Amino acid sequence: MIIDAHVHLPVCNGNHSLRRQKERLLYEMRENRVSHCIVISDSSMESIIGTMDECVELFAETDNVDVVGGISPFFEFQTQLLKLKVYLNKKQIVGIKLFTGHEAFYLTDETLKDVYELAIHYNVPVLFHSGWDNNQYSDVMLVSEVAKQYPELKLICCHCFYPQIEKCLLLEEFPNVYFDISSIADDATILADMEAKIKKLIEKVPERILFGSDYSGCSQKEHIQFVKKLEFKEGIEKRVFERNAVKVYSLNM
Fold first, then answer.
1. Among 59, 109, 194, 212, which residue's Cβ finds the most Cβ atoms within 10 Å?
2. Which residue segments constitute the domains of the chain, with CATH numbers given?
3. Does residue 221 contact residue 252 with C-beta atoms inside 8 Å?
4. DSSP string covering 70-104, please?
5. Cα dihedral angle (93, 129, 19, 73), rounded to 10 degrees?
């Protein structure tokens, strides 16, 4: 079984119909034999990849898709926080996403205290964007600070500080910090370097790595091939592709 723990609604040739975007995602899953996925909504109130409300409604009757709700200090924060609470209470979302770096706020922003406490109360992870040019908003020291302050909080570092994957090992002491490998296989020119770094990371903390592709920004097929090329024993590969996501997201599977 493969669980893709990091996807977004695709934009289909300029057509922003949510129904068509959903159909395209489900088609992609079938083509790549992905059994289950986690769709991450945007944090803004209007978005071509779907707002939290839109994604929750769109996948309400879809058994093999769960939703993570995005939130931002910049977009009707209190209103969105209340929606998160309602959706979590109804078990309509399985996590919360912070777009640190895409948006100019730090992982240690005092405003986020309410988000972290909400996630702890409902036992869901908080995902955060990392890597690329604006990595100062969620760099290792900030992650360490949050992980230490909230030891019961499950944090998922999306993209593993790409391309500086080695930074993940600086968080080895924090068992509540997990890593999803979405976007890792996006650049063919540094793929060999990514393979070596991710293999080392998985060997160190195999129980804390989640498969993700960042579809449709990246190729789901290429990310699956990336993991298989690492040639881990079946037990470790199964952790990455399935078991770790089931545990972290408390999936009923």
1. 212
2. 3-248 (3.20.20.140)
3. no
4. EE-TTS-HHHHHHHHHHHHHTT--SEEEE-BTTBS
5. 70
Q: Model confidence at 147, in pLDDT bands (50, 70, 90)?
A: very high
Token pair, residue 183, equals 């976007």
Is the whole-model pTM more than 0.85? yes
Q: Nearest Cα to 125, choosing from 99, 93, 101?
A: 93
44 SS3 class: coil
Q: Provide Rg for the chain, Cα atoms.
A: 17
Strand order in the sheet with 95-98: 3-7, 36-40, 65-71, 95-98, 126-129, 155-158, 177-180, 209-210
Q: Could you give the 3-state DSSP secondary structure of residue 197?
A: helix
Separation between Cα atoms, residue 63 and residue 229, nearest integer Å: 30
Sole residue written with tokens 């996807």: 7
Which pLDDT score, from 0 to 100, does residue 14 have?
Answer: 62
pLDDT of amino acid 55? 97
